[in-house]
Amino acid sequence: MSTPSKKKSLKQPDTKLSSKESSKNDKIQEEMRVLESEIRSHQYFYYLENSARISDKEFDLLFTKLKKLEAKYPDLVSEQSPTKLVGSDISVSSDFEKVKHKVPVLSLENTYNTEELLDWIQKTDPEQIYSVEWKIDGASIVLYYEKGILKRAVTRGTGGVGDDITENIKTIQNIPHELKSKIDLYVRGEVFMTFEDFEQFNEDFGGKYANPRNLTSGSIKHKYASEVAKRPLQIYTYDAYFPNGRKNIQTHKQALELMKDEGLPLSPDTEFISLKEMEKHINRLKKKKDKMPFPIDGLVIKINHLALRDSLGETSHSPRWARAFKFDAMIQESIIEEIIPQVGRTGKITPRARIKPVQLAGTTVSYATLHNQDYISQLGVGIGAKVKISKRGEIIPAVEEVVEPGLNGVYLLPKKCPSCNSKLQKVDESVDLFCINLSCPERMKHTIQFYCQKKQMDIDGLGERQIEIFFDKKWIQKIPDLYNLQNYKDEMEAMEGFGEKSVALILNGIEKSKSKSLRTLLPSLGLNELGHKVTELLIENGYESIDSIIDLAKNNNAIEILNSLHGIGPRTAEAIVKQLNDASVLDMIGKLKKSGLNFQAELVEKSDIRIFENQSWCVTGSFENFQPRDKAMDLIVRHGGRKVTSISSKTTHLLYGEGAGSKLSKAEELGITIINEKEFIDLLKKDNIPYSNEKE
Length: 696
Description:
With 696 residues, this protein is α+β, with helices and mostly antiparallel strands. The chain has six domains: 28-84, Helix hairpin bin (Helix Hairpins, Orthogonal Bundle), CATH 1.10.287.610; 98-326, D-amino Acid Aminotransferase, Chain A, domain 1; 331-434, CATH 2.40.50.140; 441-513, 5' to 3' exonuclease, C-terminal subdomain (DNA polymerase, domain 1, Orthogonal Bundle); 518-594, DNA polymerase, domain 1; 616-686, Rossmann fold (3-Layer(aba) Sandwich).
């Protein structure tokens, strides 16, 4: 091509575009604006509503598509493009002071297979060492230490500006308020909740929360720090910035060692790997991830050498020296055949989609959650719709996206309870609908099922299916009816699928449940706020029978007395008083007493060998030789010790097992003696104390 032709080509943008070119640009611009809108919408749900509508991989495909168009057509880029921001500007709340970040708070580019990751390493620097760290699924935070003192804790926000949530973050037990040296240090970290802590907290509050990430994100932005303090949050830190220069710190490994020396908590399992070892190491972690005690959605791979990081730099969105390796959720397409509004034990209405069965993560999935009406409306879900189904965290099947809408439009939940016809209501500003009728048959059925579960009264042979059959036959309508089920023994034995042995198993299980003590019985009744933890707190404070707790609830100063007990807040106190003055609750307790149920906390037989005398023990995690773990605590009480449910300055020992939660971090901070299962067994053997290793 001649030089004049090149000059003409260079001047071309200044000339008027042809109608054909103009039309093409209009279409491209429209496509870019649609992509921007779609990305913002998904960012809104993820950052503000804590509810992802598409998988991370699908979001990344949208984001990458927009970036490619912007690179090809820079004149059409919008100033408001989401590629110019980190996270979402709507994730900054109006309830907190806004703070401009002093460090780059960027997102990471994602890869979804080993080949992509290894290719990135080859292109970046195949001779380098890379850190491989867990990517924890929680809430990102930046801690600003000045002269060793924690001055600010700020959410990621837009990446440029975040919310100052310092007072809330200071309530997290494993965050040091003061480092060991007077250093200026800015630290990135992830706030999270272990599965064990989440399940316990959720159980104590009526199962209101969807998953650990949602509860974590909501907790750190709570109005009141005093409420945040009650939530079992933890943090792991993973990157440090040195505002006054790095001095002798040349690698990420050295930075992590300094952070650890300063008292900052670090994620477990971080390794420094060469390209040659990378694939094998990632495969090892893939196998391990499901055994980790906290939620993980991938790995983070970073160049170890800090000077090389500086030279590589970053884009406006992400660093060039790091990648996230995501564990992709499995997704399949299916058809919604029916939407069934289900009434839970607490009265919450949860729409459930019956779908054409598909294979996901090795199981056949026939049902998927739709959460609530807002979720249905936002996705545009209707009966007959073709949808994408995923297993979130490889556990809960969920409808993620509508591929083709149904013929009858968007599904609307009924205005009345499908079980008892009561008017459905929203409670405590919740987006969910509730049936508030305590006598609602469906609520009662789920309450009976809850009562019989393994973690509650553990009645052998009485699973959800059996209870449903007996409930439909009206043999059992409320919990006390279980103790009259023997009246239908002959009819049960004659039913298809039952028989003499299975009926004997059920009736023996019901009879055996009468020996369970108040510790198990009270939380099994399904009363709001009266879970295992609150029951233990009441017993610890001398309320060792249901009669003493009822007498307390009838006291004119009951709420004040309950509020004075460490670990019981105003909402819990009000719930206890209200329910234990309710005629229907008292009637249920009276009937259970007549049936021979034990509403007294058990008195553990004391031994002459008192090796745990004057010691207060708490337990966390799961154990190989003590299942359930209360077996270990019974041994401690039998041999002179005291059992407590929470860590405080008065706790002397913590017994911990696999998947230990926030109690372990708090015990370490307070300098409490920490004992693992093997060490505990060694203590028992030393004094020839027998222990059972039989698993129930």
